[in-house]
Amino acid sequence: MVEYRIDRHSGVATYVQIVQQTKQALRLGMLEPGDKLPTAREVVEATAINPNTVLKAYRELEREGLVEARRGLGTFVRRGLSTTPADSPLRSELDAWAERALASGLDRDDIAALFTAVLEKHFQGEPS
After folding, report:
1. Right CATH number for 14-77 from 1.10.10.10, 2.60.40.1470, 3.40.190.10, 3.30.450.20?
2. What is the rounded distance in angstroms from the CA atom of residue 7 to the CA atom of residue 14?
3. pLDDT tens-digit series, residues 12-65
4. How far apart are CA 87 and CA 35, in angstroms?
5. Average confidence (pLDDT) over 2-15
6. What is the number of H-type helices and E-type strands within the chain?
7. Which helix (H) or strand (E) holds 74?
8. What pLDDT is recorded for position 70?
């Protein structure tokens, strides 16, 4: 099950963070079709956010066809976005790279900027 982490200082709307984290879990294969998302109450208890924020995020995911709400049962994944499994060798290489970046003195924002610059170089002109 996905556990949402809300960064109140990121400048990104809370519901958008939930949508993004759900999509990331779908891409990494951590969530698969048929899996149940945490209830709004569970997310509220874990993150101390407004229940309407969770419901807004889930409605957005439903609008995109990624999840479906089943009355009285919860919200379930309809389709995945996974093309690379979470245990991919590429993930291990990226993990090792991040450890080297940290060891060299870079902080999270530095690493994110460096990674984003490399992505931009390789995906110029493609929609994100």
Report:
1. 1.10.10.10
2. 8
3. 999 999 999 999 999 888 899 999 999 999 999 999 999 999 999 999 999 999
4. 19
5. 94
6. 5, 2
7. strand 74-77
8. 95
CA 101, CA 4: separation in Å to the nearest integer? 25
pLDDT band for position 128 (50/70/90)? low
Which residues lie across from 68 on neighbouring strands?
Answer: 76
Q: How far apart are CA 68 and CA 36, in angstroms?
A: 10
Measured distance CA(14)–CA(5) in Å, rounded: 10
Distance CA 17, CA 8 (A): 10
Evaluate if residue 86 carries a pLDDT over 80.
no
CA distance 24 to 86: 10
Residue boundaries of the structural domains of the chain: 14-77, 89-122
3-state secondary structure of 77: strand
